[in-house]
């Protein structure tokens, strides 16, 4: 398996600064790596820093891609006879909340999915939740007052702020019931080929259960303790575009080396 990373925009022989430390760690771990110009890829060109041979498998590590852009990357690899470890369906499954939510509904906050131009007050009438956490299919708003509102009437102005700050809404709007979580208990885990990993060898049973439920070769899962002590899933993501968060580069590289 090869790992493919975006190159520095000004030096195609070096990894992008964002991934330089991780790139060095995976090379030290003995993993095979190649670079590609993300800017060229966005312009419709695709070249790698070293040849990929037909039959090679590739795991992407880089910037977040919309599902159609990820499918385009797979097509570029396929033209070289190279196999993407994660297919387009699996990428969308972990990247878009409405895809994974039905599989983990018992373990995560209640969610209603609506169009971005919906009448939120009408659509959510009668719910009377203690609060509403708002995000599109992928991200929430991390600026201003954040993504929490107290009433459905506050959702439309927040969605408009999301458009202003981010330029676009991906998919639609996910309205999530507010739950109270204990501070400093959020942790990120990764699942690679069905095996769950954490920053230590201790992995909660909930994460192991999610590894069984989600059909994807590589994904991240964020969990947190609710105020009543119950462990909850707050986010799932495709592992190829997930930040390491509290993970050291050495631990992350060790995990990837387990894939062979």
Any overview of this molecule?
The chain has three domains: 2-85, no CATH class; 93-103 and 182-257, D-amino Acid Aminotransferase, Chain A, domain 1, CATH 3.30.470; 110-177, Dna Ligase, domain 1 (2-Layer Sandwich). Helix content is 28%, strand content 24%. Helix 1 crosses helix 9 and helix 3 runs antiparallel to helix 4 (88-95). It has 260 residues and is of the alpha+beta class. It is built from nine helices and 13 strands. Strands 1, 2, 3, 4 and 5 form a five-stranded mixed β-sheet that branches. It has a four-stranded antiparallel β-sheet with strand order 6-9-7-8, covered by helices on one side. It has a four-stranded antiparallel β-sheet with strand order 11-10-12-13. It has helices at residues 20-28, 38-42, 67-79, 88-95, 97-100, 120-123, 155-166, 205-213, 249-257; strands spanning 2-8, 11-15, 32-36, 57-60, 83-84, 111-114, 132-135, 148-149, 173-177, 187-192, 195-197, 218-225, 231-238. The mean pLDDT is 95. A hairpin with a 5-residue loop joins strand 12 and strand 13. The longest helix is centred in the first third of the chain and has 13 residues, at 67-79.
